[in-house]
Each structure stands twice: as structure tokens, then as C-alpha cells.
Amino acid sequence: MSSACTPYELYSKESGKSYGNQPLSICDESFTPLEVRYDLEAAKPLFTKKIVEAGPDNMWRYRSLLPIPEGFEPDLPVGFTPLVRAKNLGKRLGSQNLYVKNDAVCFPTLSFKDRVVAVALANARAFGFEVVGCSSTGNLANSVAAQSARLGMKACILVPADLEPAKILNTLIYGARLVRIDGNYDHVNRLCSLIADQYNWGFVNVNLRPYYAEGSKSVGFEIAEQLGWKLPDNVVVPMAGGSLIRKIKKAFDELVYLGLVEKKHVRFFGAQATGCSPIAQAVKNNTETITPQKPSTIARSLAIGNPADGPFASRMIRETGGWAEDVSDIEVVSGIQELAETEGIFTETAGGVTTAVTAKLIAQGRIAADELTVVFITGNGLKTTDCVADRFTLGRAVRPRLTDFEEYINELDGVAASTAEPELALAGGN
Amino acid sequence: MSSACTPYELYSKESGKSYGNQPLSICDESFTPLEVRYDLEAAKPLFTKKIVEAGPDNMWRYRSLLPIPEGFEPDLPVGFTPLVRAKNLGKRLGSQNLYVKNDAVCFPTLSFKDRVVAVALANARAFGFEVVGCSSTGNLANSVAAQSARLGMKACILVPADLEPAKILNTLIYGARLVRIDGNYDHVNRLCSLIADQYNWGFVNVNLRPYYAEGSKSVGFEIAEQLGWKLPDNVVVPMAGGSLIRKIKKAFDELVYLGLVEKKHVRFFGAQATGCSPIAQAVKNNTETITPQKPSTIARSLAIGNPADGPFASRMIRETGGWAEDVSDIEVVSGIQELAETEGIFTETAGGVTTAVTAKLIAQGRIAADELTVVFITGNGLKTTDCVADRFTLGRAVRPRLTDFEEYINELDGVAASTAEPELALAGGN
Q: Which residues carry this modification: N6-(pyridoxal phosphate)lysine (chains A, B) (predicted)?
């Protein structure tokens, strides 16, 4: 693999000030988040279809437009998840051209956070941090724990105390230190800023945030490449802090600039749970001002009441002609079931949000049936089983004999018949 | 994608009888399992490095050596999971050339069963089955439920009543009918044979078994391709029914026959839990006779007491100069932790078995430090969290203030110091 890199640096779009490369996330003049800026002219010979396609089958095939420090050789095969044609789901929702980008099977920890962590830890190592960490609603905790274990770095991870059991176990298993904070994500996040100021620790989503956020671009690159180097008409993306949706746009814009895809007007749609929908509210109110909310939703991985990138996400969505919607917790669970039953993909609550919002947007006529629409599923259903478990009742245990089995199936079919559910057609036996 | 297929048919190695293509698993003369046989000469122009590498990034790139019915266009992007260089785990176990083939992130349901189900359902559809099903210890149930949902087929799945909750939920979520049987896997499996005889249902691991089993070959193809078209010195594979390990060998042999890899003497090592180790016992006793066991192990996905392919697996392992080992349930959990802490990969109990057996084989000197060894991890840790959850205690919830955080970390470090665990070095703060 070529190790050629495109020069990059931190800068503030608002103040215009450059910061070189250092662990810093906020401009000291404009107090707005720093971004990574590339020398895109230098990228032209490095980021071509041919070079990308000859690269490894993971996100590092896009390394020349990611902030990877000179000399760092990434070897964890993160990303390059399936883009699945979703005919069945499309049929149910009313779209003939629907795709699911499925990070529920992302390596190594089954969420898109693996992408951002991979980039952040490459930089953490280059900056010489001995301890890395994060504030997390769960998926990020899993990913930092797993990837820091592999890189041989110590990790200290802060989460809200009421996090789902599977996400807590999936952090502890890697040997990371987990600190449960008596508060919501916004409390945890503020504490992490204090810790990062006080100690020489690399917090992936605090002082390493500009690098971290760039990792999300890999999703945009993959969508375009997997569509045969073209852009979709619409993307539907879940929103927590508001960064992901912006970075997918940045990836598309870079591909257009480099001439790898044709310029196209892509509309961006944001998805939130009603119980934590500050960005969706801002979009609906046509404002960039985020009114913080106290989260109350089962979609805990999206439960950021005061999203750092909210103002920019709101503006960007409106500028592209997109929209944002939110759905109730009941709709979230239905969204999870709908995606599972139609496409065989089991997603966590955030994916339920995205699926249910997509249904809503199609029903509203904001997304047309024939438009190529990509729905981004960001995490796996096995992490939030508690939210759906009570939808199902376990049948009784049946003795292992044919007559007992038949009796049981007929029992179920009797019930099913009364609820108009299709039978298994035991009568078709011979 | 080329849709050219290699002609194939069912036959019995023992009786020599051919059966064409039909839903049948046992030879009526020799009473041994049927196998799929290909016209390998016809495969030569279809299965080349160039054609494979130009194929999709999933197991269908190997379709010309899989039994895919004419006209079936597979579209679910199953397989092509990461092959990870495991330097840290190798260091801990004493191997300098260790790889992990990681089906814990297999699409769509996070286990290698997705591969076999994909091939079985392609055939189920071609044979016209309206209902498909399986007997399962969990992973297979998940995969049949997910993939049949996507294909629009009805599914009826039989499992032992005491299956792990995550595996039950991960079946129900797709809308499949699940029947819990009051018995172990062997009871369930026998009942499924009766049902398959009685009704016109396609049971992937009963009457579709010969096709199903061939799906495992894709792992062997991937390992060889991902190593740069060469074979490893050793593979370590978990054993339940004993089919998987044989099919990986079959894949390697086919690659050698077609000239895609150099001929090499690969040794095959089988891994079981001591609480269900009929094949390992047979290997150790140098016999092909399997003495059935009543399973008692947390590694339920391997808990098949009377393995159908056991005799053949035992013989094959001995013939390659390999070996089989088994480990206690305590070692299984340690194996899970070891893999997570070193490589950031969280596997289910079966992967704990494989990791712990690998450690044992290296310690015994059966696998040498410099040999290229591939360990096959077949499933995800989020499916069997109950087995490891009690290893961890949740710390108390900490108030979101810097002083509270520092107090808590110092508390932990005090405990850690007394157990010689490394600190997080709060003292390094400024």
C-alpha cells in the first residue's frame, strides 16, 4: 500500500486561522470547532479511482484524504461495509431505489464509530499520548476500548451510568477502564473537557475531535464508490452531535473536486428521536440556533441534548434542500423490526430512528419513489436488545416428538388465523 | 458479475453413486453423507485469480466453485471478512506468525453460518420450497431467519429451549417462527429430520445439507486469497458437527488443483470444549469411531454430542498431521478475554474455545512459533454475553465533577497498586 499522504492541517473556517497539527478542537479566536483542511491539489495524483480500487478492502483505501500522520501504517481493516440494495424495505416504504449502507457489521465493534476512532488513535499515537479516552453513549466506548487494546494504549472511558448492559460489557471486555458518570451524555462530555485540560490524555472526541470527525468521511467515499463512482440523490443520516452528516457531505464535495464523481445536487436528511431532537427542531424552525434539550429516548446513542455541530448541520441540511425529522420511541422499535423483517438487518435504536424517519420522509413526499436514496445504518441491534425484547414472548418448550411439534404449530396457527397472520401450511405435508 | 457456473452434482464417495441435484443428504446405499462434486476441469477457465479478484467484495466472488443453481443471482453481500494479523495475541501465546480470520463481523448476522445459509437458501429457492428451516444452536437460527426474511421465504426454526437470550431475540426480530424444543441439539436435529420427511420443507442442515456445507469453503478461499494466494502452515478451527474443518481443506485442495496456490502440506487442528468433545476424543484415541457425549458446556454453539461429520473430521485431521484439543469452560472465558485484550476482537464462546485451544497447541509444541497459523473465529461475543458478564463488576456511579473523578481514579489505582495492575498515571497531570 502506498504511504503517500496529502498535506493537511487544522484551521478555523470562521476566523481563517491555521493551527498546524496539534491536539486541539476549538479556535481561540472564533470559539468555533476546528476543521481539517487538505491541499486538495496535492491529493489529485494520490486519490484516483485506480489507486483507491487497488487499495485494501477497508477504509484505508481512502487514506490520502484522511488525516493520517506521516509514517503511521494503519493495519486494522476497519470499514468498507456492505451497501445493500433494499428492494423489500423500499417496497414497504414506497421507494424503488433504496439502499442501506450497513455499518452494523463494521469491524471491529459493529458501528460507524470504528471509523472515527481509527483516525483519532492514529493521531493520538503520533502526538505521544499514553492514555486515550472518550465520553461516549456506548458505541464510541466499545470502539476506543477495542482499538486501543490492539494498539497497546491505555484507555479510560467515561459513560452515562445508565448505559445499556451490552455496551458496558463490550467496553470492559477489552480491558479498558470504564468510569460510569451519574449524569447524561452532556454532563459526561463537559467532564471530559476538564480532564483533557488537566491531564495529558488524548480524548478522541474532545482534544482529538477534528481528526476523529474526519474518519466519518470514509462512509461518504464508500457510498460513492459502491454506487459505481456516483452520488445518490438523497442520504438519510442519524444525528447525535451533528458531525457525521456534515462529513459525508464533505466527502462527496471532495470527490467532485477531484473529478471522481460527477457533480450532483445531493440532498441531506437528518434523523433524530423526538425525545432528543434539537437539530431536527432547528431545521424545522429554519434556524441555526440550537435550543438544548434534556434527552429522554431509548435511542441513547443519539441522546446528545446540546450537539456541538448542531448549528452547522442545521444550516447544511437546509442549504442542500434536505430536511430533518424525528420519531417517537414506539416508531423507533417499529423501524428496527421493519428493517429486520424486510432486509434481514438487525440494527440498534439509532438505526430504528433512521429507518422510521426515512418512512416518514417518503410519506411526506420529501423523498420521491424513483430517487436513489441511501439510508445509513450506524450500529448493531445486539447492543440494544432490551428495547425490543419485550415485543416478543417466548413460546413454551415443546417435547422433541413429531406429534408434539404438530400440536404446537397447529396451536400457533390457530392463534395466527385469528390475527390473520400467514400459516406455515402444515396441511401441505404428505 | 459473470453468472457462469461450474457443473456440479451430489454423489457418495463411499458407494460411488451419483444423485444429480435434489434435496437429499444421505446415500441410500452406503448411508453416509452426500457431497457436492464439481467438474473441476470446467472450472479452470471460470475460477482464475483475475476473475475472482474482479468479482464483488463478498463470498460470491467464488461462486463458480459453489453450488449455485443456474439463474440464481445472489445479491446479499455475505462474507469476505477481515483476516487480521494478530501480533499481540501471538506474542502472548508464543507465535510470531499468527492470523485471525474474523467472522465475528460477517454480514448479515455476525457468524460464519451466514455463508452456509446463503448457499442453502439459493438451492431451497431453486427446489421450490415455500418454508425453510433448521435445527440450530443459535447462530444458524439467526442467519436462516435473517436471510429468509430478505428472500421473502417463510422460516420455521427449531432450537434447544435453553438457548442464549440474544440468539433467541436475534431470530425472532426477523419475523421467523421459532420453536423451542425441550432437549439438546441432538434431540432437535432428530426431530427436524422427521419434519423434513413429513413435510415439503427445506431444512438447510438436513435435506439441503450437502449444499449448505459447501458454503464453508468460502472461508478457505478467502484465507488463501487474503494471504496473497498462498496456503498457511496450520489452521485452527472450532468443531461442532465436524463439517467446517473438512470444507476448508476441500477449498484448499481445489485451489491447488486449479493452480491458484502452490501445493503445501497444511495441518488442520480441531477445537472443542471439554464438555462436548467427541471429535477431539476420537482424534486423541486415533479412531474414526465417535462415542456420542451428552453436552455440558457454555460453548453451546459447539454442543453437538453426536456429530454427523465427526468420523470424517477425525480421519482428515490425523491424515494432515494435525491434532485436536479441548478446553474447560474456564479456559473458554479466558480465551474470549485474551483475544479481546490483545486484538480488540470480541468473540462468542466458540471463539474462546478456538483461542484457548490455540494457546494449548502452541504450549504443547504442536504448532511452532514461526509457522503461519490461521485461527478461525466464527461468531460474535455480543451473542453470549451471559458467560462473561459475571467476570466484571460495575464501578459506582461518579458525580460529573473533576474532583469526584480524581477521587474515584485514585481509589481504583489504590486497589490496582495492591494488585500490581498498571495505573492510569493521574500524577502525570499538570
A: 113
